[in-house]
Amino acid sequence: MYVILLCVSCNEKMTLPSRIDMDSETVTVPAAGGRFAVAYRLSSSVGDKSIEAVCPYGWVNSFDYSTDGIVSFNVESNDGKKDRETRITVIHSDTSVVFRIFQHNPGKVLPEELENARWTATRCDFDRTGTKFHALNPDIPSEFLSDPLTGIYKVITAESFAGIYARDWNNDHPDDMMLPEEALVFDFTDETYGIRNFYDVAFYEGEMAVSDGQVTASGATEVVRIEGDYTLDEETGLITVEDKSNMHREHPPCHMSRCQTSRTFPR
Fold first, then answer.
1. What is the per-residue DSSP string for 25-75?
2. Which residue in 6, 89, 130, 261 is a FRET match for 172, CA 20 to 30 A apart?
C-alpha cells in the first residue's frame, strides 16, 4: 500500500466580488430642483475605484464624482403639473446599484417652505361654482341682500357674480366693454388711481395669518381674516387653521398653489 500526501500551497489572494451600497434609496427634491448629493460605500478589490452614474432622462444631469464616497448631480426644475421620478444606476466594474429620485410638482407645498414664509398674491382666480359671494342689495348696493323673513344673506356663485359685475360695468362703460370671464380673475398688482390692493399669507412659529387690505397715498388699511395654529395635509395640500381672529366665520377650504415663481390663492 502506498500513501501519497499532497500539499497544496496557495499564495494568491481570493478576489471578492465588488459591492456598492447607497446611503439613500430615495432622494426627494422640490419642484425648483437644484444641486443634490448622495453618499455611497464601495467595497472592491479592483484597483480602479471610479464609478459612473447613468440616468435615462435628461432632467437629472451633470454628475460629479470628485469627492470620494459622494455622487452629486443637478436636477432641473419641474415645470409640469405632476410629480415625476426616475432611477439612477451607479456602476463600478462588474457591479451596479440603483437609487430613486422623486421630484414634487410645482403646486406642491412642503412643510419646510412654510415656516417664516410670507406670500403675496398676485392674482385671485374665482372658481365658477366653488367660490361663493354674498349678493348685493340692488336698491342699496353697499348692503348685502338678505331674506326678509329669516335675515339670512343670499349667496350666489362666482359665475353669477361675474355675470352681474360685467353687466353693470358694460352699462357704465360702453366704450370699454368686458366679458364675464374677465370678472372671474382679480389682479392684486393692478394699481388704479394710485390704489393698490393686496392679499398676504404669513407663517410664523407654527401659526398662519391671512390678511388683505389697500394701500393709498394717504395711508394703508389691513384686515386679518384668518389667524391661528395650522396643520398641513401633505397629501391634499389643504391647510387647517384653528382661527382665533375676531372674524368668527366659517371658511371653506382654500387651495394654495404656485405658478412657477409666484403663487395664486383662489378664494
1. SEEEE-TT-EEEEEEEEEE--SS----EEE-SSTTEEEEE--STTEEEEEE
2. 130
Residue 201: CB atoms within 10 Å: 21
Nearest to 132 by CA among 251, 244, 3, 260: 251
Rounded distance between C-alpha atoms, residue 39 and residue 37, angstroms: 7
From the list 51, 38, 41, 37, the residue with the least C-alpha distance to 90 is 51
Extended strands (E) in 76-160: 84-92, 95-103, 118-120, 123-125, 132-134, 155-157
Q: How confident is the model at residue 39 (pLDDT cuts 50, 70, 90)?
A: very high
Mean predicted confidence (pLDDT) in 43-57 = 87
Closest CA to 130 of 265, 226, 259, 252: 252
- Please state the pTM of the whole predicted model: 0.54
